[in-house]
Amino acid sequence: MADRWDEPMRHEPVDTTRRTPIGQRYALDDEPVARAHRDRGIDRDDRYAGRFDAFLGDDDADATTGGEPPRRRRNIGRWVLRGIGAGIVLLVIAIGWLAVTAPLSKSLQPPTPPSITLTADDGTPVARRGAIIGAPVDAAKLPPHVTEAFMAIEDRRFRSHWGIDPRGILRAFVHNVGSGGVREGGSTITQQLAKNAFLDSDRTAARKIREVMIAFWLEAWLSKDEILSRYLSNVYFGDNVYGLRAASKHYFGREPEKMNVGQAAMLAGLVKAPSRLAPTSNLDGARKREMLVVAAMVDAGFLTRAEGAAVQPQRVLANRPTALPSGTYFADWVLPSARDQAGEVKTEATVRTTLDRRLQRTAERVIRQAGLRQAQAAIVAMRRDGRVVAMVGGKDYGKSPFNRATQARRQPGSTFKLFVYLAAMRAGMTPDTMADDSPVEIAGWKPKNDDGRYLGQIPLRRAFARSSNVVAARLTQEVGVRNVIKAARDLGISTPIPNEATIGLGTAEVSLLELTAAYAGVANGTYPVQPRGLEETQGNKSWYESLTGGSRKMPDDIRDKMLDLLSSSLRGTGREAVLTTDAYGKTGTSQANRDAWFIGFAGDLVVGVWVGNDDSSPNPGLHGGGIPAQIWRNFMVSALNIAPVAAPVVVEENAMDPEAFDNGDASEDPVGDAIPQVEGALDGFGLQMKMGRDGSISITPGGRDRPPPPPEPAPRDRRGGDEDGGEF
What is the DSSP secondary structure assignment for residue 185, as one 8-state letter? Predict the structure, then answer.
């Protein structure tokens, strides 16, 4: 006992329930309790102080333990400041995002399909692909009733809101709920501009949020007139027309600054459903919508009742004099190259082509006047360097857009002999080289002259002029098929050519455009000539062409020999193509008269003509020296502005034209009455003159004592051949 009283008194609080000193309790479970308190944000000193004060019954205990601790209130304030800072950062990020993804300049660009306008070589628009886009308008310079018409029907409180119209959204919501569907929109003009210029047409919530953000962005940086100007400059009005200026010209033939109230109301009414309400196809619907807009203008106070009642239903242009054709043979052909030259087309581009409008009209006229019935025709005219200045791919583009000048592959007949004789000239022969015009058999194949006549030894000049099949076959065998193919490839023929002797008679199929370009290689003296519809630029050349020049010069002596041969043809099978100036060319007729050709050049023009049926059916009486040669001559006379030949007559001895013989029924003649149907013979001065059905004239010696006529043509060999053979 003494020992206990001798110990100093320890003033420790005592737990009245467990009779354990508080210090001892904390000593026993200090770590678990500390962890629990740390989780609740109470530090150790505060914990002990709170417990001790509670034991003593201190009234100030609530200041630290009861209610909210001061430190916790400070934490809430800190989080508020952090939230404000995060909001500022997000606002800065949003502004930066809008500046990048929604630049104000983009609101001037109409979201239209790519549009390319093709012009002729003089800059005159000749065709358009894509939308019609008008120049921008300035809302501040438009008559008040024009802008008021759009605001009355689209956004009546446009001048007062900040990009969105809560009243309009609420009204639209009520109407849509009452109707059970989406019947009315609450978008403002600013929102519509944001959607049209920057966003797609999906109806997701995210897109709508972006639309609102961009609307605020536009309102913050642009004036109301600037927003309205951008909206009116790119809104869609139907008929593939974008922008108020284009629409006013398209429908009313006037500038938007001169539109009356009714016209402005009609255009404002189109915005809701431009494709369905376009007045060119739904005038009644457009007029009803016009009156609805006028009523909205009266209701909004933009018009008095008397002014609204005075507005009349508007008329639109019955025709569109400024509209450009959307499809022509030349435009279809040149469009891929135009797109390549224009690069990425986002709105509108204008590309100048090589087309000559005068020559194009001439080409269309001579095809139209050719008197064709069921037969089709095509013509290509190009400069010697390959610039295509006129192209007609058929009698009627509206009925058949198939381009027979570029897409069709047909047997060229004797026009292919150009490559046979070029190979012969390269091998050292000349137009005076003698050739054997007599029957021949080559590996079981027996080519025949179509008229059944064989003249024996004749110069190549005469063989080319009369288009001798046997001479062409002999030359192909002598110089080699590979050399003939090489000559064709050198001049630009890219279509498959079989490795056989029959190619000399034109059994390989080619296009009119490619064959005409091959003749241009001879005319130009350099080859190959690449036909093109755009002015050549350095960027159009491949790296190989840039390094090598892309073309080679034909030796002068070879070219002179070829010109000699081509000019002789116009004294033989091609006499219907004779001009009053130097001209060169070659006829061609495929087997059974399925295809008839004339390719030639004069002056700076190289022109190819083809006539035939799309189904490759025979054309009795059709031959290259007839209708195609006449079309070529008529085009050249007009294009070169020269006088026509008074009477193309052949005066050489033994001249005949087997192509002029009509071996079929005249009722099946694919050509009309453009050529006088005159047949007969005149005797006099010891000469026999004969005029064929196609207008051809031949003179042969004799009269009443003339020798009997030549036999009928022999049957055609199945391996192919050319009906031109033996024409001279």
Answer: -
Which residue is it, tokens 């119209």? 165
d(CA 404, CA 380): 10
- 325 token code pair: 């054709």
Among 367, 272, 382, smallest CA distance to 608 is for: 382
The 10s digit of each residue's pLDDT in 394-452 is 999 989 999 999 999 999 999 999 999 999 999 999 999 999 999 999 988 999 988 78
CB 390 within 8 A of CB 377: no
β-strand 687-691 against 434-437: which pairing, if any? Answer: unpaired
Rounded Cα gap, residues 382 and 50, in angstroms: 105
372, two tokens: 């064709």
pLDDT tier, 366 (very low <50, low <70, confident <90, very high otherwise)? very high
Q: What span, in angstroms and rounded, lies between the C-alpha atoms of 209 and 206?
A: 5
Give the global pTM.
Answer: 0.64
| Residue 697 pLDDT exceeds 70 | no
Token pair for 666: 């005249």
Amino acid at 300: A
Other beta carbons less than 10 A from residue 707's beta carbon? 9
User: Where are the alpha helices (H) located in 271-416, listed in sequence order?
Assistant: 274-277, 283-299, 305-310, 329-342, 357-368
Q: Which two three-digit tokens encode residue 566?
A: 């081509």
Partners of 585 in beta bridges = 600
Per-residue CA distances from 177 to 168, 170, 171, 182, 632 (Å): 14, 11, 10, 8, 72
- CB 604 within 8 Å of CB 384: yes
